[in-house]
Write a structure and sequence with these properties.
By secondary structure, the chain is of the alpha/beta class. Helices cover about 60% and strands about 15% of the residues. It is built from 12 helices and 9 strands.
């Protein structure tokens, strides 16, 4: 995510914090100070928040490490004001695997709450504390509050609001009895219903629920689209989807040549070829930057992207677009026997998916 910074690496997984999370801590420090009236009290409140988010990190690690058992790597875990997000490379299509991954996080939260309960009982500390102030100062109140917040997070996460944990559990359970795509669509509909409920309740009582509602709504839509794309692209190779009519540039060509190509057609990114080999990609952003920096007569070589990915015409589209997502280029040259055969763009993949979806709906209607 943009505006996020790496702060640690746990179990081979980068832990990142988003800028909005830092803003949250500052805002909470002000709220705690106004409520409690002392710097020590405000610091205690911030520390409680950090302890809570440490629980969130363990929750996300539960998802990530369980996914690793099934060969699914995790890109990173990012802390946001609404919680943590573990970015898995992909969600397994096998419902039983997804079910285990989805339940792993809540299971960790349950263990945290149980451990805190045992500690409180062993040391004879109160399990129930009043909630008159933001952070109680009484003996054992910190641990008791942390325990109950984890219990609340556990119950909230298990709501069937796709793509939250409970929603993924619902999707996996439905997928055991029906097609994966249909299970995703049903789970997404349930998620949107919960998003509307969160939004209404949030407007009346807690603005944070409005943010969660937005996250659930957009997440459900995004998951539906991603699942539809995976379904439509299953078994399809790059050659079937790639753009064949491609204009290329040479490193010695001027930016003015690229500019004329853009104005004369629809292509915005250009493979740069020298002696039959692709040596770079001139993106639209690179072109504009080069024009502003050096003018029209500057050579393409000065502005082209040299760190680019390529695809083989015979490989599955899914593996190619996974690499495209990690690249700063929006266009991936497609090669066959080392020679340029076309380019792959997410726009063209999206058009292919829409056409396939339309054709399948016609067949289903017949």
């Amino acid at each position: 995510m943009k505006w996020s910074w790496k702060i640690a690496r746990i179990g081979g997984i980068d832990l990142r914090v988003h800028a909005t999370f830092v803003i949250l801590l500052v805002w909470l420090a002000i709220v705690y100070f106004r409520e409690i009236g002392t710097v020590a009290g405000a610091a205690s409140g911030v520390f409680f928040t950090l302890a809570l988010f440490a629980s969130v990190v363990l929750h996300e690690l539960g998802h990530a490490l369980t996914a690793r058992r099934f060969g699914v790597p995790t890109r990173d875990i990012t802390l946001l004001p609404i919680g943590g997000v573990a970015r898995l490379e992909y969600i397994p299509d096998k419902p039983k695997q997804e079910l285990q991954i989805a339940l792993a996080g809540p299971a960790v939260t349950l263990v945290i709450a149980a451990v805190l309960y045992v500690v409180l009982r062993v040391f004879g500390l109160p399990v129930i504390v009043a909630d008159d102030v933001i952070v109680q100062q009484g003996r054992g109140a910190f641990l008791a509050q942390l325990m109950w917040v984890n219990v609340s997070l556990l119950l909230f996460n298990l709501l069937p609001a796709f793509p939250m944990d409970g929603g993924r559990v619902l999707r996996a359970a439905l997928a055991l009895r029906m097609q994966y795509m249909r299970a995703t669509m049903l789970a997404a509909r349930v998620g949107r219903v919960f998003a509307l409920l969160f939004g209404v309740v949030g407007l009346l009582y807690n603005p944070l629920l409005v943010l969660i509602a937005l996250f659930v709504w957009l997440g459900a839509a995004g998951e539906s689209s991603a699942t539809q794309m995976r379904t439509m692209l299953s078994g399809v190779n790059v050659e079937r989807v790639m753009i064949r009519d491609v204009r290329t540039l040479a490193p010695s060509d001027t930016l003015d040549t690229a500019l004329r190509h853009i104005l004369e057609g629809f292509q915005t990114d250009f493979p740069v070829v020298e002696n039959g080999n692709v040596v770079g990609v001139l993106t639209r952003a690179g072109l504009l930057s080069g024009l502003a920096r050096e003018g029209r007569e500057a050579p393409v070589a000065n502005s082209m992207e040299k760190s680019f990915r390529t695809a083989d015409s015979g490989e599955p589209v899914e593996s190619a677009i996974a690499r495209l997502g990690d690249c700063r280029c929006r266009t991936m040259p497609v090669l066959s026997d080392g020679h340029l055969r076309g380019v792959l763009t997410m726009d063209n993949v999206g058009e292919y998916v829409m056409i396939e979806a339309a054709l399948r709906s016609v067949v289903a209607g017949d």
